[in-house]
Amino acid sequence: MCGVTGIFNHPKAANLAYLMLFAIQHRGQEGAGIVSSDGKNLFLKKGVGKVGNIFEEKEIKHFLCGNAAIGHNRYSTIGHSCLENVQPIEIKHLQDQIAVCHNGNLVNAHLLRKELENHGNIFKTTVDTEIILHLIIRSSKETFLEKLIEALGKIQGAYSILILTKEKLIAVRDPLGVKPLCLGRLNGAYVLASESCAFDLIGAKYQREIEPGEILVINKKGIKSYFLPHCQYKCQKKAQCIFEYIYFARPDSIIFGIPADSIRKQLGRELAKENLTTADLVCAVPDSSNAHAIGFSQESGIPFDQIFIRNHYIGRTFIEPEQRIRNFGVKLKLNPVPSCKGKRIIVIDDSIVRGTTSEKIVRMLFSKGAKEVHYRVASPPIKFPCYFGIDTHKGELIAKQLSLEKIRKKIGATTLSYLSLQGMYQAVEKFSLSAKDFCDSCFTGKYPMPIPKAIDKFCLEK
Amino acid sequence: MCGVTGIFNHPKAANLAYLMLFAIQHRGQEGAGIVSSDGKNLFLKKGVGKVGNIFEEKEIKHFLCGNAAIGHNRYSTIGHSCLENVQPIEIKHLQDQIAVCHNGNLVNAHLLRKELENHGNIFKTTVDTEIILHLIIRSSKETFLEKLIEALGKIQGAYSILILTKEKLIAVRDPLGVKPLCLGRLNGAYVLASESCAFDLIGAKYQREIEPGEILVINKKGIKSYFLPHCQYKCQKKAQCIFEYIYFARPDSIIFGIPADSIRKQLGRELAKENLTTADLVCAVPDSSNAHAIGFSQESGIPFDQIFIRNHYIGRTFIEPEQRIRNFGVKLKLNPVPSCKGKRIIVIDDSIVRGTTSEKIVRMLFSKGAKEVHYRVASPPIKFPCYFGIDTHKGELIAKQLSLEKIRKKIGATTLSYLSLQGMYQAVEKFSLSAKDFCDSCFTGKYPMPIPKAIDKFCLEK
Amino acid sequence: MCGVTGIFNHPKAANLAYLMLFAIQHRGQEGAGIVSSDGKNLFLKKGVGKVGNIFEEKEIKHFLCGNAAIGHNRYSTIGHSCLENVQPIEIKHLQDQIAVCHNGNLVNAHLLRKELENHGNIFKTTVDTEIILHLIIRSSKETFLEKLIEALGKIQGAYSILILTKEKLIAVRDPLGVKPLCLGRLNGAYVLASESCAFDLIGAKYQREIEPGEILVINKKGIKSYFLPHCQYKCQKKAQCIFEYIYFARPDSIIFGIPADSIRKQLGRELAKENLTTADLVCAVPDSSNAHAIGFSQESGIPFDQIFIRNHYIGRTFIEPEQRIRNFGVKLKLNPVPSCKGKRIIVIDDSIVRGTTSEKIVRMLFSKGAKEVHYRVASPPIKFPCYFGIDTHKGELIAKQLSLEKIRKKIGATTLSYLSLQGMYQAVEKFSLSAKDFCDSCFTGKYPMPIPKAIDKFCLEK
Amino acid sequence: MCGVTGIFNHPKAANLAYLMLFAIQHRGQEGAGIVSSDGKNLFLKKGVGKVGNIFEEKEIKHFLCGNAAIGHNRYSTIGHSCLENVQPIEIKHLQDQIAVCHNGNLVNAHLLRKELENHGNIFKTTVDTEIILHLIIRSSKETFLEKLIEALGKIQGAYSILILTKEKLIAVRDPLGVKPLCLGRLNGAYVLASESCAFDLIGAKYQREIEPGEILVINKKGIKSYFLPHCQYKCQKKAQCIFEYIYFARPDSIIFGIPADSIRKQLGRELAKENLTTADLVCAVPDSSNAHAIGFSQESGIPFDQIFIRNHYIGRTFIEPEQRIRNFGVKLKLNPVPSCKGKRIIVIDDSIVRGTTSEKIVRMLFSKGAKEVHYRVASPPIKFPCYFGIDTHKGELIAKQLSLEKIRKKIGATTLSYLSLQGMYQAVEKFSLSAKDFCDSCFTGKYPMPIPKAIDKFCLEK
What are the binding positions for Mg(2+) in this chain (chains A, B, C, D) (predicted)? Predict the structure, then answer.
């Protein structure tokens, strides 16, 4: 996934970029970085781990100076999790300083890199973001904007990019609009973020989604919008990631124009229409499936209950008693309440990727005395890998490998069913969105652009 | 609050004590400690902060040896938060080694300490737990059990104590049974914990609550139960802390014999019976009020919805933008979904202590466009300080200072109402519990024992 | 060894105590602590490791308040190296606060502790210093000074003690004056330290050694000297530790009234008189034997040279290549210069305890091509354990186990000789000191007081 | 300065590179790094600070794999002290991996970098070492050796370079041989280091200095020597840094073929011949001037004594009492023995750069009661900046700004004199070295190559 944040024309730019990163921490916890600009210099600080552990107050106040800043939360889809690969990536080149960060994946990154290396360029990271910088620097065009447009013309994939130079902040969304990126205002300042919940935290007002193919240039004079040449009359076709609605985004975010939790509740309602069964209660796999479960309960009339209690103190450094004790990881996080004993329970899950958590969830319920466990999934079976920013490798997708009945047996549920593709689109159409504006390749295998061979997570390191 | 855990006769004693501490981390996050025994020596490790940050795998495996262990999560009610004051407190005395930890508060601690110091005893901490050790050591009785009973005869207050010596583990609950303490089995081992959710994590089976006034002695020969002299024929009267049901305990724990979440849902139902209003939806102040809100929704028929989204990445080290920005702390943790706009909302809160969070909750909803905010509290107004382990100082109790209407104005709600004392007891009586077996002094000011003057949090340090 | 520092009546008391601890860091590197007093409260900070790693500027400035302070560098002779055992040891008792630290060893500590425990006292550490506090607290005398004198009357051994209460600083030296302790002035302030080099660092002026059996009480009114009852007319006999001159003290310190480096050079001269041989050059085992070697060179006329080069970057965390590579530890610290090739070398060592370093020194010289290595030791053979603060266990003393010739063979030297006891005393008598005022029990086995059985390093932990 | 180490064909390559870095830690303490090769991949670990604090045992054993390694100690002459600028610098480029580190300074680095950036290359650091990598990558030559020679043909300055690729280790010394670099053997392995003392630590045998202009290629087949084209018939003229003898190198190292301490003692002897005076004793500013002082004493017959005692516990984190207390820094490290009172003292210093330490040294002696302090410097006055790796900025050189008499007054010495340039060369000629083979530009201003304008420490960052 990854998350990006940006701000222009605010005296506490780095601090607000930091707060916004904090709000979208769920989009990536492997590393984070902020670059600020005071008009004369860029200042960079990045680190491995979570936002709250990387930045110190003094640094934010005294080192990350200036009225503009961009920030990034890293979730590793390309390249190893080392400090070098944490974004933003910043370079000094002649008189210029440029920093860039992005959410998404370039599908032709390995081809472009090889070409650039053959021309004598040296890369300092293994993340695809760096390629954009090399393409800009090597461009023979005159202005920075022209160089950028030439560079963007060469890259293919999903990208929501923020670029910071000494004097300007630029936001770009790819022509298909795969990943979200939205614009807001905070008094006189412009703010940008992958999700609108970042604006809520700092009291900024959500304005709109950046358009697919749009290039937004913000500087002292104000804001100006451009479009990539082939998107000049706006893109006919979009390929927005449907999984942002199903799982990625925080429920309190407005994504592609619609609040995520509204879509989720509707997905739960559609699921109830398609897959009803008799039961005593409906519960969610917390916390990502809460909205789906509430929708299901409202549609079906079966009471919603909170069955799984979360332990909020999970940290990185946990010592398990013995490796052979199975399911320990989930037990630390979740525990069913005693009152589930003797009950017929419908469990709502947003999706199933590998199925390991589902198996533990079902087992925990039965071991606490549940009578029946009906597993309901608020999205279709995931059968195909994603090349645009989600880490799903073929071998791990349970629905690619097993039939519905075999999945049910494996996870141990009394019954199992998924939402249909049609049901999923009925949910989004309820909000006047069009099915054809979404990428559903993880369910259907129909990719919105050609995928070059030999692409995988570490392809830039080979 | 504080939490205690204990285990006897298990080869991974310290590791399981550690896991159980982790499960009841919500009872205290200021420090934690474990003492183990291998029959010949006691081994102690303690630290400041949360369980997951204090213990390292190597220490647990190689240093905290033996088949028995006790552990403690500290929530500071008495004494400063320094390492010395973290429990268990362990002493070496002649041939003996004794470790002790407890949940609760001794109301005559300052008097006993002064007396002991006048006799030439030196204290190493400012926590009341240490007094018990001095009383045992100074006792002229013959056996350890006799010494312990003599010591317990001198202390007054609420205490659920675990004591570990080289050969035995002893559990004691005060004659009024103020604080919970339960017994479980894990194959051949006995386990003890403040809450039964600790047993779930390690796969142990809940057996029963320790009785008020009971002294349970576990050694190689087995388990044996004694009672404090004045409790020999079981105590007539109990004073169990009702607040364990309302707020303290995890909803998945069995407390005083009944699952906490069942009581909570019933409190929500009683609240709905007493305080209904027209509204579009019911929501909870997460996560502690979820069960109350679900009960309210079920009783009233008004749909339950998840309005507040929690940020799960809150850490200790957070940098706020400016101190004058109000409400920042809560905004970091909670954000309402956009769909609350235009809605009439019933917010369920388990209780109000100082009212500062309630105020922020209401303000957040209105700033997101809520039409009406009806604040409903699933317990009576808290008007009196607690001397048995909860940190409520008179000056801070909003219901002590303001009338209902003034509280409503201060928090900014459309309407405000509390559950009545009668309603609260109807909820517990639904589960065959008797109102007279509870301490409700925080609501009524009727304390179950005389409270000596000049008792406060730091009284042992003066 | 251990080192103590104290200061009274200076606005930067804790900072100066810290600096003085730093100057005498060589006396103990296992832990350090400082207690300060602002007249109303004592403030304590201690830690494991070296002074420079334990204290932070903020703590010294803002936490360790007041005009008086005492500090301690720990070298573990009694008790384990855990934080609890780091001195000063501080207690709160009724209205009083008392902190104490000492350099030395109490030989009847285990007997006194058992007695106190039988009376119902509980100890919080395993260091003998704590016993003094219990004895003071239990004394039935009226004034603090009377209580202290009663307590001191019960302890036996070597002790240079500093005590800090809210209003006064007290310094005590045992009746035999085994360990050093000196008094200085810094403008209006009184300073105390184990060695005078601590005064140089802070610009204080050396005044005098505290007398054996003297009790110095410093408070707002000034300084007052008392003597232990049996020392009232000054002690006839002293038992000053001769090893302070040979090895312990820094050469720039005045010890027992005489600069240590002057005595050392004289020891080297006596060694040259007794044990001359033909050679090309004289060198020292750096840095502790430099002065002895210079004295030897001056007396003998054989040129002094610097053969061993020290690596100043040795830290705690060093990774050796393989455990079987012998002598690695010393090679990291010392390396001979290439020009020692073909030379006949006299190596001067201050003393030999276990002989392992000597062996490595000789081997390094021969492996660099030295022709002859004549090992000369500037003190007599160490054959007996020390019970007063030095960590020499019988089994490890090479001179107790092997003859001179066998030692020579083991360390591989061409020739080996020690300074005689007579030669050693001729050196100190040169400075008008009397041989009978020294403890030489490590060479002779003649202890200045009876030693109870069963005393060893961990005797208080059994 | 900086220091480099390398090793080829040893199963513990990284560990030995680490140990050698430790031995030459004095050449740079701002950062260190190691790159190892297992024939298929390079592995890099670097950090800020000292060697002992950067590397952990596990990393060295399990991560820094392979039979070959190079290491670097950083002393910042070019670029800021951030992690990015720590060497070795390692790149991945197409199928290749190359790591490089060097000791020295390129005087045309800023010009080359600008040229490369104009060609579209992006730099990841601000250290001049990186330029060499870009020049190699951009070379159109066929083989790696040809590319390297082309790259070296473009750079000017002082450089002792180590390069590691997957299969080979290459060592290069600039045509003038400004900085040292020597070759050794450890059984079947080749080792390289800036100073031979690194070989002593690991038990390797010193073989020879790398020749000026020599390129040594070590791979599985063995070792092969090449020369830079303009050095094919060996360089006529060398410009070896005389300051390596005076101050930089450890005295136990063989530098440019001669043990450093032998030269130093001879410098002291020449100083005694030129600048004798009547005195009671000769002492050194420890530890760097010890050998010079011993030479002076031997030539003059005035006894050598150890006057300054060093505190070996100086760490980074030291808290000074107040900033206005002058001279504190030196007092922490050095303290004169009390016996210097009333003495006429000759102090030998290897060199004077800014004069601040000299001033403190003289003041300390007088404040301890010295009668006369005769300051003698074992090298000529430093009047010109060094562009080849020493951090001497014009403004700071006291001898550039003040006359001899004014310097004497400033430092407060009774008399002051320097060794003459002639005397310095007589010392080296004693060892059959030729005066014309040395760079003495810091004394004479005669640089061995033209120096481009605008060169300074941060020139690559502008």
Answer: 288, 349-350
Which residues fall within 8 angstroms of residue A219, CB to CB, at 6 or more apart? A8, A167, A168, A169
- State whether B311 and B414 are in the same domain: yes
* Strand residue runs (E) in B134-200: 157-165, 169-173, 182-186, 189-193
Contact at CB, D202 and C336, closer than 8 angstroms:
no
DSSP H helices, D252-327, are 260-274, 290-300
In this structure, the number of other CB atoms found within 10 A of the CB of residue B147 comes to 17
d(CA D154, CA D149): 9
Contact call for D313 and C254, based on CB within 8 A:
no
Question: In the structure, do chain D and chain B come into contact, i.e. share 3 or more CB pairs under 8 Å?
Answer: no
Number of domains, chain C: 2
Q: Is the pLDDT of residue B324 over 50?
A: no
Of B91, B114, B118, the CB nearest to C122: B91
**pTM of structure:** 0.86
Give A220's Cβ-side CA count (13 Å radius).
Answer: 6
Test C319 with D55 for CB contact under 8 angstroms.
yes
Which helix or strand (DSSP H or E) is residue A367 part of?
helix A356-367
Residues in chain D whose beta carbon is closer than 8 A to a beta carbon of chain A? 91-94, 114, 117-124, 126, 133-134, 137-138, 461
Q: C274 with C157, same domain?
A: no
Q: Distance (Å, rounded) from C-alpha A248 to C-alpha A236?
A: 25
- The H or E element spanning position A160 is strand A157-165
Q: Is the pLDDT of residue A180 over 70?
A: yes
Q: How far is C434 from C127, CA to CA, in rounded Å?
A: 33
**Does D46 share its domain with D167?**
yes
Q: Which of B94, B120, B123 sits opposite C138 (nearest CB)?
A: B120
d(Cα A189, Cα D292) in Å, to the nearest integer?
Answer: 66
A105: exposed, middle or buried (C-beta count within 10 Å: 0-12, 13-18, 19+)?
A: buried
Q: How far apart are CA B96 and CA C459, in angstroms?
A: 15
- CA distances to D34, D196, D202, D261 from D5, in Å: 9, 10, 12, 22
Check C134 against B119: CB less than 8 A apart: no
Render pLDDT for C357-382 as a digit per residue (tens, 0 to 9). 999 999 999 999 999 999 999 999 99
Facing residue for C339 by CB, picked from D29, D262, D317: D262
Chains B and A touch (3+ CB pairs under 8 A): yes
Kindly report the CATH number assigned to the domain that includes residue A76. Answer: 3.60.20.10
Find the radius of gyration of the CA atoms of chain C: 23
pLDDT at B389: 73
C274 and C409 inside one domain: yes
CB-CB contact of D232 with D212 (8 Å)? no
Q: What is the mean pLDDT of residues B307-321?
A: 69
Domain hosting residue B53, numbered range: 3-238
How would residue D126 be classed by pLDDT, with cut points 50, 70 and 90?
confident
CA-based nearest residue in chain D for residue A96: D462
Q: What is the pLDDT of residues C86-133, one digit of tens each?
A: 999 999 999 999 999 999 999 999 999 999 999 999 998 888 999 999
| CATH number, domain with residue D295 | 3.40.50.2020
Using a CB-CB cut-off of 8 Å, the residues of chain B touching C94 are 114, 117-118
D2 catalytic per annotation: yes
Is A419 a member of any domain? yes
C135 and C219 fall within a common domain: yes
Find the distance separating the first CA and the last CA of chain A, reported in whole Å: 23
CB pairs < 8 Å spanning C and D: 150
Q: Extract the runs of DSSP E, i.e. beta strands, from A332-414.
A: 334-336, 344-349, 372-377
- Asked if the model's pLDDT at residue A458 lies above 50, the reply is no
Half-sphere exposure of A216 (CA within 13 A, CB side): 26
| A119/D124 Cβ within 8 A | no
Does a structural domain hold residue A316?
A: no
